[in-house]
Amino acid sequence: MTDPLALFLLYAQLSLLAFGGGPTVLPEMQRQIVDVHHWMSAADFAALFALAQAAPGPNMMVSTLVGLHVAGLWGALAATLGMIGPSSLLTIGVVRLWDRFRDAPWRRAIQAGLVPVTVGLFLAAASMIALAADRSIALGLVTLAVAGLSLGTAIHPLWLLGAGALLGGAGLV
Amino acid sequence: MIDIVPTPSVAAPPSVAAIFGGFFSVGIIGFGGVLPLARRMIVEERRWMSGAEFTDMLALCQFLPGGNVINLSAAVGLRFRGWRGALAGLAGLMCAPCAVVIALGLFYARFEGEPAVRHGFAGLAAAAGGLIVAMALKVALPLRRDLPAAGLAALTLVAIAVLRVPMLATMAVMAPLGIAMAWRRGR
C-alpha cells in the first residue's frame, strides 16, 4: 500500500501547477501516477476520471478517487488536502495584496500570456483521457458522439454519462 | 428633511455556519461546472457581495493556480470570517462531493470484476472523454484567428501529450514565451 504522504506531496505540487483550473494538470497527474509511480494503468486512470465526472462538485474530484484507489481512505484524505491546501493558502495570502497589483501591466501580461499554454494543456488532457478510455472503435464513437452532443446541444452532461454507461453495460460498445 | 434609507443591495456578513451552508449547497448540486451556481448563491440568493465584487474576487482566483471554485470558497470565507470562514467555505464545498466520490469509488472497487459493471464503466469513461474533448474545444476555439497564440497552444499540446515532457519543464519554457508575447502586444 502506498504511503499517503507520497500522495499528499504529489497533489500539493499539482495544486500549485494548476494555472487555468483543475483540468490543466490532468496530463501531469496521469504521467506521474501511471508512468512515474506505476500506481495504476492508463485505462484505470481514465475509469477513475470518468467516475469523478459522475459526482457533483469541483472538477478536481478525481484526486480524491485516485487517493482512495491507491491508499484507501487515508489516501483519499491526503490527496484531497494536497489538491486544495497549497492553492487555497496561496489565495488566502494574496487576497490582501490583490488591490495593489490587480491593474498592473505585468499582471495582465501574465494572465493573457498563460491563456495559450492553458489551452494547450486542456487539449493535451482531452487527448490523453480520450485515448486511454477508447480501447475499441465503438468506444471511440461514443466519445465522438458525446463531444458532438455536448458542443451542439444543451443536454445535461449527466444524461450523456448515463447513456455511455448504459451502452457499455448492455454490451453494445 | 426626511432621510430615505435605501434598501441595502448587500446582506449582512454571513456567519461561519452560513458560509459552510452556502458552499455546501453549491458543492452538492454542481455537476460539470460549479462556478455559475456559486455566483448565483453568493450574488443573487444570499447577497453576500455585489456582482462587481464577485467578479473581482473571481479574477484573483482564476489568476492563481488551483481549482477556481476551491480558491473562491477560501477567499469568500476569509473575507467575512477570517481563517475560520475560509475553512468553513472549503469544508462546505468539498465534504459532499468527497463523500459521493468515495461511495462511487468503493462501489467500483467492489464490483469492477463483474463483466457488466466493467463494460458499463468502459462506456462511462468513453462518454467522460467526450465531455472533456468538448470542453477543450470550447476553450481552444477563441484562439483560431490568433496564429501565434494557436502555435503556442499546439507546441504545449505536442510537448505534453506526444513527447510527454514533465509539466514543470514545459511551463518553464512556454509560460515566459506566452507572457513575453502578451507583454509586447499590450505595449
Write the layout of secondary structure elements.
The complex is a heterodimer of chains A (173) and B (187).
Chain A: H1 4-17, H2 26-36, H3 42-53, H4 62-94, H5 98-101, H6 105-133, H7 137-152, H8 157-169
Helix pairs in contact in A: 1-4, 3-6, 7-8
Chain B: H1 16-29, H2 35-45, H3 51-63, H4 68-111, H5 115-140, H6 147-162, H7 167-186
Give a verbal description of the structure.
The complex is a heterodimer of chains A (173) and B (187). Chain A is an all-alpha fold. Chain A has one domain. Chain A contains eight helices and no strands. By secondary structure, chain B is an all-alpha fold. Chain B has two domains: 114 residues, no CATH class; 58 residues. In chain B, helix 1 crosses helix 4, helix 3 crosses helix 4 and helix 6 runs antiparallel to helix 7. The mean pLDDT of chain B is 91. Chains A and B meet through helix 1, helix 2, helix 3, helix 4 and helix 6 of A and helix 1, helix 3, helix 4, helix 5 and helix 6 of B.
Q: How would you sum up this structure in a few lines?
A:
By secondary structure, chain A is mainly alpha-helical. Chain A has helices spanning 4-17, 26-36, 42-53, 62-94, 98-101, 105-133, 137-152, 157-169.
- Which spans of chain A of ≥5 residues are poorly predicted at pLDDT below 50? none
**Fraction of residues of chain B in helices?**
over 70%
Distance between the termini of chain B: 53 Å
What is the 3D form of chain A? globular
Number of domains of chain A: 1
Bin the strand percentage of chain B: under 5%
The profile of the biggest β sheet of chain A is: none
From the alpha carbons, calculate the radius of gyration of chain A and give it in angstroms. 18 Å
Uncertain parts of chain B: none
Descriptors for this entry?
heterodimer; A: 173 residues; mainly alpha; 76% helix; 0% strand; B: 187 residues; 2 domains
